């Protein structure tokens, strides 16, 4: 470190004041691109923002891989990092529901929300039969 300092080399870090300011200015609207949903469908961005407002901040949030991931990760906030679970270890869709069941069993408090897409959910939807 002293040698780097001698050479005048410094790193601003991954969260500079400039980056923090950019994040702060987009917090309320992280994805401002116009989008007109197909009739009979919803724009997922306001849906996730409503879920974020409705679900208490002490709940565990499981976000599956796939298209739904981007909406959830840009529009959810205010929770400790340990409350987010992103089961994409195998690099594929389909792990959201089993992970949510596992988190629910481990926490045993009923405070779990899964955000998953239709293709991913259908990979393991039969797990719900076990719960019944």
Main pleated-sheet profile: 3 strands, parallel
- For the secondary structure, the number of strands is 3
* Rg over C-alpha atoms, rounded to the nearest angstrom: 19 Å
How large is the count of helical segments? 7
3D architecture notes:
The model has no long low-confidence stretch (mean pLDDT 88). 42% of the residues lie in helices and 8% in strands. The chain has helices spanning 2-6, 17-26, 44-54, 67-75, 96-107, 118-121, 127-131; strands at 60-63, 84-85, 112-115. The protein has a single domain, classed as Rossmann fold (3-Layer(aba) Sandwich), CATH 3.40.50. The relative contact order is 0.14. By secondary structure, it is mainly alpha-helical. Strand 1, helix 4 and strand 2 form a beta-alpha-beta unit. The chain has a three-stranded parallel beta sheet, sandwiched between helices. The protein is globular, with a radius of gyration of 19 Å. The termini are far apart. It is built from seven helices and three strands.
């Amino acid at each position: 470190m002293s040698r780097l300092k001698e050479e005048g080399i410094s790193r601003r870090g991954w969260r500079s004041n400039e980056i923090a300011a950019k994040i702060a200015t987009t917090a309320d609207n992280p994805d401002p691109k116009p989008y007109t949903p197909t009739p009979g469908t919803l724009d997922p961005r306001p849906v996730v923002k409503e879920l974020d407002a409705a679900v208490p901040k002490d709940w565990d949030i499981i976000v599956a891989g796939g298209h739904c991931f981007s909406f959830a990760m840009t529009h959810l906030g205010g929770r400790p990092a340990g409350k987010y679970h992103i089961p994409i270890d195998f690099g594929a869709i389909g792990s959201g529901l089993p992970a949510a069941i596992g988190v629910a069993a481990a926490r045993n408090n009923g405070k779990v929300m899964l955000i998953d897409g239709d293709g991913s959910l259908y990979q393991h939807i039969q797990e719900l039969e076990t719960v019944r």
